[in-house]
Specification:
CATH topology of the largest domain: TIM Barrel
Helix content: 10-25%
InterPro entries: Peptidase_U32, RNA/ubiquinone_mod_enzymes
CATH superfamily of the largest domain: Aldolase class I
Strand content: 15-25%
Protein name: U32 family peptidase
CATH architecture of the largest domain: Alpha-Beta Barrel
GO molecular function, one term: peptidase activity
Structural class: alpha/beta
Organism: Candidatus Sulfurimonas marisnigri
Distance between the termini: 48 Å
Shape: globular
CATH class of the largest domain: Alpha Beta
Number of domains: 2
Number of helices: 11
Strand order of the largest sheet: 1-2-3-4-5-6-7-11
Pfam family, one: Peptidase_U32
């Protein structure tokens, strides 16, 4: 049986490695202005991206290159050079968004699999067939599509791979076709520099052009001012319905500009959901425990399994972002011997260990600290905060760049976390 692919975001080389270590089968990322995440793409050099591809291939994993921006005429020569340069790195596919770039990529790199971006807004068989005939091997369907429509496309085009988003930020506009930040700040979303203006609070006014009178519309408490702020997508509890359909080849997590912890937790949660589906042991509470630990705008299951007119909970009107159930307190280095503090840590704090799936964590009790299990989870308590330079600290904070010694080696990029509380700002951020 061919299992569905888990595709994770890779905004940096570190996030790429973390996504793979925590369960992703493939990642997507880019290098230049032709990627729709310039902020993320700038964090990858060509050398680092090549290293990431080698890292993936050594583990039997894949890397898809995002060349999904909307280029101007003045950029076409640069675009050609970029396509040829990226093809030399031997990635596993290009992700492109427009018919012209699709055709150009097919001409310049004829052997490269081509994935059509969700920016192309494919919702039906007619559009899917056009792009398939042009050389697209996979279509990343519009977020507004339903499983029913996916089945129709697969029935007509059985050799065309279909990819769907299952987690991450939802765009206020139709599959990312938005110009709000262009209007307000001159940053063009469809060329990679969205300013996320839909996440801002807004005030409403009524104007009388004849008298020049302007009235502010006062809102009742609880209605909110985040009128364009969509909740985040979370379909972990619907993996059985998605995979039962038999038409989805890849499930995708959004978020190249999000944190390394986000890359780890989303990969881990959806890896568990996928593996549990094939093992006939679905446990939605387990996946949601992990996903609820992330910062989010509130979660929605959006439109894949329900029709839009049935959805009345897809917007967060009262806040832009809220903390999750947990706060990251540290991340273990690549050698597994020390961790860097990400939040205030004291001796004897109970830190939950979030390690890659199927990795081994040794139970120990020594002069540095203890590692123990409780209720199916693994925890760490440090008896002393011993830095790599042998200095002992009474407490460490996120600004402290001294690696802190662990009582035993942990898997690389293991995260340490603690429950959030009111003092840490778990109330919605206004």
């Amino acid at each position: 049986m061919k299992k569905v692919e888990l595709l994770s975001p890779a905004g940096t080389l570190e996030k790429l490695k973390i996504a793979f270590d925590f369960g992703a089968d493939a990642v997507y990322g880019g290098v230049s202005h032709f990627s729709l995440r310039i902020r993320s793409g700038k964090e990858f050099s060509m050398e680092e991206f090549a290293e990431g591809i080698a890292y993936a291939h050594a583990r039997g994993k894949k890397v898809y290159v995002t060349i999904n921006g909307f280029p101007f005429n003045s950029q076409l020569n640069l675009l050609k050079k970029h396509i040829l340069a990226m093809a030399k790195l031997n990635p596993d596919a290009f992700i492109v968004a427009t018919p012209g770039v699709l055709k150009l990529a097919h001409e310049l790199a004829p052997d490269m699999p081509l994935h059509l971006s969700t920016q192309a807004n494919v919702m039906n068989v007619l559009d899917a067939k056009v792009y398939y005939d042009m050389g697209a091997t996979r279509i990343i369907t519009a977020r507004e599509i339903s499983l029913k429509d996916l089945k129709e496309i697969k029935k007509e085009l059985p050799d065309l791979e279909l990819e769907v988003f299952v987690h991450g930020s939802m765009c206020f506009a139709y599959s990312g076709r938005c110009l709000i930040s262009t209007l307000q700040s001159g940053r063009v979303p469809n060329r990679g520099s969205c300013a996320n203006d839909c996440r801002f609070p807004y005030e409403m006014y009524a104007a009388n052009p004849e008298t020049g009178t302007l009235f502010k519309l006062e809102e009742d408490d609880g209605i909110g001012t985040y009128i364009m702020n969509a909740k985040d997508l979370n379909l972990a509890s619907h993996m059985k319905e998605i995979l039962d359909s038999g038409v989805v080849d890849s499930v995708k997590v959004e978020g190249r500009t999000k944190t390394a912890y986000y890359a780890a937790v989303t990969a881990k949660a959806y890896r568990m959901a996928i593996d549990d589906y094939y093992g006939d042991r679905v446990n939605n509470d387990k996946y949601q425990y992990e996903l609820q630990s992330l910062q989010n705008r509130g979660y929605t299951d959006a439109y894949l399994v329900s029709r839009p007119f049935e959805k009345h909970d897809t917007q967060s009107l009262d806040f832009s972002m809220q903390l999750g159930t947990h706060q990251v307190s540290g991340i273990v280095n690549e050698e597994g011997t020390h961790f860097l503090c990400k939040y205030k840590t004291l001796p004897n704090d109970e830190l939950e260990i979030v390690a890659p799936l199927n990795s081994h964590v040794e139970i120990v009790n020594n002069e540095i600290g203890t590692i123990y299990e409780r209720d199916g989870r693994t925890y760490l308590k440090l008896k002393q905060l011993l830095a790599e330079n042998k200095k002992v600290w009474d407490e460490v904070h996120s600004g402290n760049l001294n690696p802190i010694t662990l009582p035993t080696k942990l898997p690389p990029y293991t995260f340490l976390r603690i429950p959030s509380n009111e003092d840490m700002g778990t109330q919605p951020k206004k």
